[in-house]
Amino acid sequence: LGRKYTSPSPGLDYSKIFGKEYFSAVSDYVSNLVELSFIGLSYGVDTLIKRQLNQRVPFLRRSRLTNIDMYVTKNMSRQDFVKHTNEFVIRLANAALLKSGKSRFVFDEGFASMNINRVIEYLPVESKIVVMIRDPRDVYAELKASNDAWMFQPRDIKDFSRYQKVMFERWEQQKSEFKYPDRLLEIKFDELIIDYEKTKSKIFSFLAISEELHTERFSKLNPEYSIKNVGKWRTDLTDFEKDVSRDILGETLTNYNWES
Questions:
Q1: Cβ proximity of 151 and 160 under 8 Å
Q2: Cα–Cα distance between 82 and 105 in angstroms, integer?
Q3: Interval 126-172: pLDDT, tens
Q4: CB neighbours (10 Å) of residue 229?
């Protein structure tokens, strides 16, 4: 909360998406959650320089030059927290729609699929979730091709396969516990590419959106180009990497009809 107006992504200015409403919406949301605030600093959000300055220069210890706003949250029920968060999300979505002149808002957040029961509570009641899954071996092939640029996943094939196994197990658990099955659609990346028209129609039908609105066909995804990204593991993984991934992910590959 000490950086409540700041995006975790460098250079991303949220006000360009949500307009001036962003700042008031964040302030109101924080005030609903917070009992009090004060200027201070805590280990974990400080830096070595700020820590040394605060220790060596007493008049800086409550200065905004070396400190940030600290918050104490209210004791509230989960129901109240969900209510405030839901109102905040809807307010931001409406602000973005108004600023852009659009009628629909899309959250592109991959890890939301690890907590879909919680996430769906924060969204408008008419919202739906589409989850795209992909053969983990193709994901690893992309990781190799990127020269290890995707730092949020392990580089070692054994660790990567174990990581993916845990992610798929969590996803299966999330699906089995999801309270609103009519608001969830799972799509396989390879199906979208190989059977593009059928899968695309399935998505539009699920979202209850007319396909006539799809006016920029292939501008973001062209199956003729993306087909090269399906089955990359066959040529890009070594025999050792194929064997390791098969040993660890065999059940997952079978469950999703991915050739093992």
A1: no
A2: 20
A3: 899 999 999 999 999 999 988 776 678 899 999 999 999 999 999 99
A4: 15
Rg over CA atoms, the chain = 23
Question: Helix, strand, coil proportions of the chain in percent (round to 5)?
Answer: 55, 10, 35
Instruction: Note the pLDDT tens digit of each residue in 38-83.
Output: 888 877 767 888 878 878 888 888 888 888 888 899 999 999 999 9
CA dist 209 → 64, 203, 204 (Å): 49, 9, 5
Looking at residue 70, the DSSP 8-state letter turns out to be E
Helix 157-177 crosses helix 239-255 at what angle (to 10 degrees)?
A: 10
Query: Tokens at residue 88, please?
Result: 């905040």
The model carries a pTM of 0.79
The rounded distance, in Å, linking the Cα atoms of 237 and 248 is 15
